[in-house]
Design a protein that fits this description.
Radius of gyration: 19 Å
Order of helices and strands: HHHHEEEEHHEHH
Helix content: 40-55%
Largest sheet: 5 strands, mixed
Number of strands: 5
Strand content: 15-25%
Strand order of the largest sheet: 3-2-1-4-5
CATH architecture of the largest domain: 2-Layer Sandwich
Number of domains: 2
Number of helices: 8
CATH topology of the largest domain: Nonspecific Lipid-transfer Protein, Chain A
Distance between the termini: 46 Å
CATH class of the largest domain: Alpha Beta
């Protein structure tokens, strides 16, 4: 153990909060070269953890992925149906803010349907919206352009699409 790594480790052992403790212990391991943070999948979530949550929670959590700059001037509504559970959800992007509502909207810019497993993979960052549509596990109406116009305002969606050509 390096001398410098002892400092965060000592503070971690005295910490009474789990977040601080785990953060400091991880930093100590990084300092010792035992963890490579660049190799960790920090932008994906465990699908089993996500599956234990209600879908409404996962839809509301998409707000943390919303790009406030690209969505700052748009007003878009998406209607979502999870085929195997019958659940329906609405996401409204309005000037850099996202709103979740239960049920499916009467009018939507894009309507999406998929099974819950596909939704879990998308919500967890393991599968991109457009890739799911291309693979046939997600259906979007009226068309792919409408789906792309909606999801490009989420981190990891618009930026990758631009680089892919």
């Amino acid at each position: 153990m390096t001398r410098l790594a002892r400092i965060p480790r000592t503070i971690a052992y005295d910490s009474n909060t789990s977040n601080l403790r785990h953060y400091l212990l991880t930093e100590a391991l990084v300092m010792e070269g035992k963890i490579d943070l660049e190799a960790l999948p920090v932008d994906v979530a465990n699908p089993r953890f996500l599956a234990a949550n209600p879908d409404s929670v996962l839809f509301r959590a998409q707000g943390t992925r919303l790009d406030p700059v690209s969505s700052g001037t748009v007003e878009l509504t998406g209607g979502f149906t999870i085929r195997d559970t019958g659940e329906e959800h609405t996401l409204i992007i309005r000037r850099g803010v996202i709103e979740w509502r239960p049920g499916r909207p009467g009018k939507a810019d894009v309507r999406v349907s998929f099974d819950r497993q596909t939704w879990i993979l998308i919500a967890g960052g393991h599968l991109r919206w457009l890739d799911a549509q291309k693979d046939g596990t997600l259906e979007a109406t009226p068309d792919r352009a409408a789906l792309e116009n909606f999801v490009k305002h989420f981190d990891g969606e618009g930026a990758r699409e631009k680089t892919e050509g």
